[in-house]
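Good morning N.,

You mentioned wanting to compare the apo and holo forms, so I went ahead and generated the holo version with beta-D-glucopyranose. This is what I fed in:
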Amino acid sequence: MKFKEKAKRMFFNSVGKVVNGLSQNEGDYEKSNGPVTEGMDKLLQKVACEGTVLLKNDGVLPFSADETISVFGRVQLDWFYVGYGSGGDVNAPYRVNLIDGLKNEGVRINDELAAIYSAWCEDHPADHGVWGKWPRYLEEMPLDEGLVTEAARYSDCAVVVIGRAAGEDLENIAEKGSYFLTDDEKEMLTLVTDIFPKTAVILNIGGVMDVSWIASLKGRIALLIPWQGGMESGDALASILSGKEEPSGRLADTFAKSYADYPSAADFGKKDFNNYTEDIFVGYRFFETFRKEAVIYPFGYGLGYTDFELSFTEANEKNGVITLRASVINTGTRAGKETAELYAEAPQGLLGKPSRVLVSFAKTKELAPGESADVTFTVPIERLASYDDSGKTGHKSCYVMEKGSYGFFLGKNVRDAKKVWEYKLPRIKVLQKLGEVSAPKKAFSRLAAKTAPNGCTVNAYESVPTATTDLRSIILAHLPAAIPQTGDRGIRLEDVKSGQNTLNEFAAQLSNDELEALTRGDYAMNSPLGASGNGGVFGGVLPSLREKGVPPVTATDGPSGIRLRACASLLPIGAVLASTWNEKLIESLYALVGTEMQKLGSDVLLGPGMNIHRNPLCGRNFEYFSEDPLLTGKTAAAVVRGVETVGLSACPKHFACNNQETNRNHTDSRVSERALREIYLKGFEICVKESEPKNIMTSYNKINGVWGHYNYELCTTILRGEWGYSGNIMTDWWMQKSASPEFPKLSDNAYRVRAGVDLLMPGGDRMKKKVPDGTLLKTLGRPDGITLGEIQRCAKDVLTICLEKI
Ligand code: BGC
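and this is what came out, ligand included:
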């Protein structure tokens, strides 16, 4: 290693130690090698299999039992089970890599080749880096023709595994070793596929990467994406390769021909701000409307080991709900599951619409050859509506359905879906009258669709409507009344639980200091009040609160399992969960995670992560679900329902537009109100309305100039006001210091509480100061200061979560 390299590594290692020292990674981790929760191993395998997507199969898979498989690629041993950072840092009891999985499954592998990889990996141990400086890939073992030719003597079958890491606080990049293959990987693929007649290429990745090379490979090829499947990855994948299980995953994102084809490519990753110029045309909405030819594998696509036919049965509209029935028949020779997908095309009208929008989906049970199943899609007509943020339709700030014909398309993916029905609307229908909320402050040009004289849909650009509201007066008109303070009357939180007293009576007794303490967590991560290694504790953080029966509530990450020093099950990443398209399965997985939380002492799971995959390079896409808000919202709701079955709660995050990791604490996501509502908030809206989560976490970034944790318009006007959310809103870890532009006397915690963000997590600043920072109470009772009613409102939201624990 060159001196400069060494010095850099030493520097980052010490930075990493400081960061970890401030978080919860000090001290020993527990060890175990058995399952943490009975039955979890089998369920994890099932989810990993249902989330594995088969994109190409020239009769390669499944391998037959008498074939010997030569496995290439170091990732066979150094498997990426999950991404790095809070969404992956789970102390798993064990992790099964591909080679162990194949052995467990009894698949015959080329042992000589496996031994060569094993020795090479030992000599070139994987360096997992430090916080935010994770590797994006691992150096590959260079191959020569002799070795590959020798391996090919064993059989015709090869597996080539390519791996990519993913991680929090680090973006992927459009370079070799991240979005693109390295030279060694290319060479490996070319050599193996030139020499072996049958090759299964496996992508052990956290999100979309370039696959344009697939067309140039020789021989018979299969392309399989198990993503990062958690601790049971190897066993699940081996059962798919052997044919014991079927890969029934379908893509939750589009794979385009080139990175530049993604509509956000030119406006992504900038430090200060990014204009969301593609507007509502994210993912397949863009490709199906404007650039069909740029797609390699469309949204919703995936093969299995058998075939299905979908046929439309009937449809009708009644009381604002469209019911469409179809049947799915297994026409192949093996049992399998299919996902029936329903898309709609709204008339272009004045607003311009994407050519396809996913409006419903259904995964069948396993169907035997020849067996069929009836599928019923239920589509509330709101799913067909567009938000008019400009007033073009004469209905500014309303969800409208423009007049014309609404086509319904049934299929196995967005591209092959065929028109099966039409719903006609003779005149425009206003579905919801709302107000202008969180519009951009500065204009920029956004992509729009319009109908050309020849009837084709073409792109056009228009200026985004900018903000016209007076936030100060809106906030002042909605300040909550204070509950007169009574001093301690001996009411305990249990008395509220039993119905003897009201929450207001309990809250009335609290002193200002107690109220302040309820609106922030304990000062640091790994609070001594909770299980070792916790992400933070809130609620009973003062002795006087605990004396009144307020319990400390423990929050732990996260999306891929419970992050503590104790051993916990390591789950498949968000991309896998979404690729299952199976809400019931996800719900049952998270019900089991709930029981594990009970056992390990976690009350609130800091997940699911549910930001939209705006761009394939976002470092945290692995935690999130999809480029589509319906699939995102439904998957998140399943997670929330699952955890709540045991009486604990989840915390969907990051509200909202946390679509990149570059400069994530400062970057401003500038996005039209229409795109916010139809794309970036829609998943949250679905999740809130369908599963009523008890917590929501704001995002690090700004949205149209306002940080998530200070965002009155998103948190109070939309989340609570429009959607009826009544739970607790917490910050993402710590917050940025700032004064309110509308109320300059309010800064930091007072600014946050005025926005309706209940809880600062953790409660201190990053340097572990063990006293409140004073910003909340400083202006209490002063002109233009924070009011008692606002502090009490936040404290009561937090107490509502505490009540769940007693
Ligand atoms: C992440 C959150 C996470 C929190 C606690 C932050 O860095 O953005 O998603 O829940 O840390 O670990």
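The first strand starts at residue 53 and ends at 57.

Happy to go through it together on a call whenever suits you.

Best,
F.
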